[in-house]
Amino acid sequence: MVDSQYYLPNDIGISALDCRVAFRLLSPKEQMYAHYLSRASWYGGLIVLIQTSPESANIYVLLQKIFRLQAPQQLEAAATAAGLSAEEYQAFLVYAAGLYANMGNYKSFGDTKFIPNLPKFKALVWESLAFKQSPGDMETLWGCCCEPLYSLEDKQKQLGLGEKGISAYFSGNCCLEDAEFAQKFLDSKVYFTFQSLDCFLIACISLPSADNCAVVGKSEVCCGKHEFEDSVFSVKRGDYAFLMEKVCQNLEKAKDYAANENQKRMLEEYIRSFTCGSVEAHKEGSRYWIKDKGPIVESYIGFIESYRDPFGSRGEFEGFVAVVNKAMSARFAQLVSSAEVLLPELPWPPAFEKDIFLKPDFTSLDVLTFAGSGIPAGINIPNYDDIRQTEGFKNVSLGNVLAVAYATQKDKLTFLEENDKDLYIKWKGPSFEVQVGLHELLGHGSGKLFVQDDKGKYNFDQTAVRNPETGELISSWYKGSETWDSKFSTIASSYEECRAECVGLYLCLNKQVLSIFGHEGEDAEEVVYVNWLNMVRAGLLGLEFYTPESKSWRQAHMQARFVILRVLLEAGEGLVGLRECTGADGRPDAVITLDRSKIYTVGKSTIQRFLCKLQVHKSTADVEGGRALYEGYSAVTADGTHNFLRLRETVLLRKEARKMFVQANTYIKGDAVELVEYEGSAAGLIQSFVERFPDDAEEVEAQLREMTCMDSSCWRKEEPHTQM
User: DSSP letters along 228-271, please?
Assistant: First the structure.
């Protein structure tokens, strides 16, 4: 029997992202700008199919061909003819919706594979109109993906490196040591975040770009072969060339509707970056993006987050377009204005904080388009450490995502005492809004990295700065081109999320912060209680994303929350309670409790100490100390007071599937932009994707198949397959 965690349930939550009012309030020029940015994002988002797994793009094309000729309602007759029950057909629709929502057949949140919960997938394909019109082509497509579609071999159950899972960022014969060696080579050069690595005697590094140009700028290395420590690296551009060209074409059109010079220059640099694969151009574009304060239409695009790279360095494509919610943004602006007062409250010495806090934009946005593998609740970007430390960043909270993503029904609310459930439902939204604001602005936006640059210049006084944990002068720092991600690699993303979450917990105790968000008196205390309760509950829920067989975590945020749960449990004194029990249904259950009277004493001091340790290891590039601390709390064992391996089984037994979102499309009708929205259902999500590429769907699908062929397990066939 297949474990249910590899299926998407038929009753999975699917919600439409409402952006109708926000879009209609835009001027015609702003709507055009938003439209072309959305088109660029949607084309680029297809890259994620190639980045996720070798079979994802072929499954996507198969589904597109089926649904383009028969909408979900029309296909139902074919499903009946193929012998599918109503439940099985719904399972087919849910699988298809999941493939679209995650841009691949691995969950964007957790990196676990999901397979169709029906045995008659092939029979339905054969009964479809697409098969009847093009049987040879459809049979070929089916042959390319039918085996991995259902395969749950150990290595294929999750994304990972080497024997731990599937990765499209590395060839199948790459291991962690190979990835570390490749990173060492890249640290000696200046490259755009490379998207794939073949691990042979000649290691091939591929850079995404529309062109195959060899030289981009003075600071960037030519393509070609490079000798490095008795090995050879072959660097190529032109990955995803067709899609990158489509991105650039739409960014070029968006330029005509830019509101100011910063937006124009931003788009010009993005186009240069995506044309030739230049990291410097993307960084320059990001600088103009930071300078574009308070735009009505906000966007960002590129290879941004590294969560799904098993080594933690390569970025997954992402593009979003959103409209500012002015009322909520006013609260965030007030938080920004208070940042210079709040930052000194954080529990590390002044020398460990940035020399100057560069006040960022912090806006609440209603998402029009979010192309990629998933939609977060908030974002703090750009992710370039050198820019963030000295030039600034932006924060966004995605309001219409928050409004629907975290709504919970009482009967589905797990692991809480009954007297906490009503309180939790009432205050989870407001408390999470506070947590997201603090997490993004003062979590990711705080803390200094000690750096010695290529010229030997220090950004700190190495004769005076002392480690607050030891009292000794600091003895380690970042050197040359080293970055947070390259140094801390596999734990970098989760460690940083943990640090930001701890900042949120710590500063939500501040009355000024709560007042900014409109919470006073008893209401403010309820927000604090539910925020902390939500965090420890999330830590327990995080066990779903741990794989015992490989002893690895599959989701950065959930690992971070589990670590925080461990830290607070270790504090003792009855602050957090966790007990196993039997539920009313006779099955294993658990209950987590929080003593609200001890949050400001035991809780605050515990997070204070832990947060300081996290920051010191990060600031000083102390990989060994940081890894020992973080991996120690990340360990999931059956030893000690709590049997977390057994609790994991209980969490899996009672887990609720993560919601999926249906997004609108925009079309040019004469001189105006038309917004088309879809119902919040599997059928609505499917239809939104079918109508997303109305003019060139077949060309796009053909190119995806070609790129998939190039990026299969034997990709880069021209390189010798001699093991490194």
Answer: ETTEEEEEEEEETHHHHHHHHHHHHHHHTT-SSHHHHHHHHHHH
What is the pTM assigned to this prediction?
A: 0.81
* Residue 669 three-state SS: strand
| Distance from C-alpha of 400 to C-alpha of 323, rounded to nearest angstrom | 10
**CA atoms 643, 648, 653, 655: torsion sign:** positive
How far is CA 315 from each of CA 70, 308, 382, 405, 482, rounded to the nearest angstrom? 35, 8, 12, 24, 17
Rounded distance between C-alpha atoms, residue 137 and residue 141, angstroms? 6
The catalytic residue among 55, 440, 496, 501 is: 440
497 is in an annotated binding site: yes
- Mean residue pLDDT of the chain comes to 90
pLDDT in tens, 439-459: 999 999 999 999 999 899 999
DSSP designation for 360: P
Least Cα distance to 246 among 557, 703, 721 occurs for 703
Residue 617 marked ligand-binding: no
Burial 162-192 (b: 16+ CB within 10 A, else e): bebbbbbbbbeebeeebbebbbebbbeeebb
DSSP state at residue 106: B
Q: Look at residue 196 and tell me whether its pLDDT is greater than 70.
A: no
Alpha-carbon span 576 to 592, nearest angstrom: 7
pLDDT digits (tens, 9 = 90+) for 497-545: 999 999 999 999 999 999 999 999 999 999 999 999 999 999 999 999 9
Radius of gyration of the chain (CA): 25
Q: Is 440 noted as a catalytic residue in this protein?
A: yes
Strands 451-452 and 478-479 come out as parallel
Residue 434 corresponds to which tokens in the numbers above?
Answer: 């506070």
- Tell me how far apart the alpha carbons of residues 60 and 76 are, in angstroms, rounded to a whole number: 19
SS (H, E, C) 123-170: HHHHHCHHHHHCHHHHHHHHHHHHHHHHCCCHHHCEECCHHHCECCCE
Retrieve residue 623's tokens. 């990989």
Contacts with 138 (C-beta within 8 Å, 6 or more apart), sequence order:
62, 65, 125, 128, 130, 131
Q: Are 568 and 576 in contact (CB under 8 A)?
A: yes
3-state helix, strand, coil in the chain (%, to 5): 50, 15, 35
Q: What contacts 382, CB < 8 A, 6 or more positions away?
A: 283, 286, 289, 290, 300, 304, 388, 393
Question: What CA–CA distance (Å, rounded) separates 87 from 1?
Answer: 18
- 334: helix, strand or coil: helix
Q: Cα 697 to the chain's mean position, in Å?
A: 27
Alpha helices in 205-356 (DSSP H): 241-255, 261-276, 279-291, 326-337, 339-342
Question: Is 226 annotated as a binding-site member?
Answer: no
The values of phi and psi at residue 119, to 5°, are: -90, -10
